Structure formats: structure tokens, C-alpha cells
Amino acid sequence: MLSEDILKKIRKKYEKINDIYSQFLEVTLKIFSLLKQDDLKSASMLVEERDSLLLATQNLFEETGDLLKQLFKQEGVTDGGLRFLKPEYAQNAGEINSIKESIKNYITQIKENDAKINEILNQNAKEIKNKISSLKVTREIEKKYNANKNYQTNFKLLV
Fold first, then answer.
1. Radius of gyration in angstroms for the set of CA atoms belonging to the chain, rounded to a whole number
2. pTM beyond 0.85, yes or no
3. Closest Cα to residue 6, out of 79, 102, 99, 89?
4. According to the 3-state scheme, what is the secondary structure of the chain?
């Protein structure tokens, strides 16, 4: 395969990564919106979708790395030896390295977002448990109140 063909493939992969990352951000925003509305079921389904987008991004990142290795091997360049590339490829290789860095930054950002979402989910889970506990206590109080009320009514009927 020609070096230019490899570079075209790398660019296409980078465009796909950007598209997927945009989708990832949209899904993340939807998740936060659903969490604010206490819609945990829908949010958890979107978390699964977001995770699949993250996996797709990582796979594309690995494929891009393989293409880079293939390009360097074809051009007779070892890792880090960009200065020995032909001038027309040096600029592209520099762009590719910046793409790799931006992808790493995306992944770091994704992990940070994951941590925030997990924190919110844990917090919401705790709040739900507390609400359920207080609801159980309220129901017990209602039962005792109704039992006491029935007792008083029955007692009045007897007297």
C-alpha cells in the first residue's frame, strides 16, 4: 500500500473518531440531563451506549496506531525518527502525532466524565435508598396510626 493511501486511511479514521467523540459528548449531556430529572433507568441505558462509543473510539485509535506503524515501516523510519521522513510525509506525520495526542486527551476527558457520571449515579443511588428507607418508615407509622385509630373507634363503639 502506498504511503499516501495509508495517510488517507488515517485521516478517515481520525474523522470517524471525531464523529464518534461528538456523539459521545451528546450522549453524555443527555445522561446528565436525565440524572437531573432522576430518570436513572434511561440514564443507565445511555451509559451503555456511551461505553460502546468509547470502545469504538479506542478501537479506531488502535487501528490508527497500526496504520502509523505500517507507514513508518514502509518509509524506513523507526519510532520517533520523524526527522528522517521525506519532507512531504514529515508534515503529515506531525499532524498524525498531534491527532494521537488529541485522541489521548479525548480519552482522558472521557475517563474524567465517566468518573463524574459514576459519582452522580452513586449519589443518586444513595438518595434513592434514603427515600426508600424514609418511605418504609412512613408506611410503618401510617400502619400504627391506622391501627391505633381503629382501636380507638372500636373502643368507642364498645363504650
1. 29
2. no
3. 89
4. CCHHHHHHHHHHHHHHHHHHHHHHHHHHHHHHHHHHCCCHHHHHHHHHHHHHHHHHHHHHHHHHHHHHHHHHHHHCCCCCCHHHCCHHHHHHHHHHHHHHHHHHHHHHHHHHHHHHHHHHHHHHHHHHHHHHHHHHHHHHHHHHHHHHHHHHHHHHHHC
Average pLDDT of span 91-102: 71
CATH architecture of 3-119: Orthogonal Bundle (1.10)
| Residue 46: Cβ within 10 Å count | 22
63, 17 contact by CB (below 8 A): no
The Cα–Cα gap between 38 and 63 comes to 38
**Unique residue bearing C-alpha cell 486527551:** 105
Question: Looking at this protein, which amino acid is placed at residue 96?
Answer: I
What are the sequence ranges of the domains in the chain?
Answer: 3-119
For the chain, how long is the longest CA-to-CA vector? 107
- Mean pLDDT for the stretch of residues 54-65: 86
pLDDT surpasses 70 at 134: yes
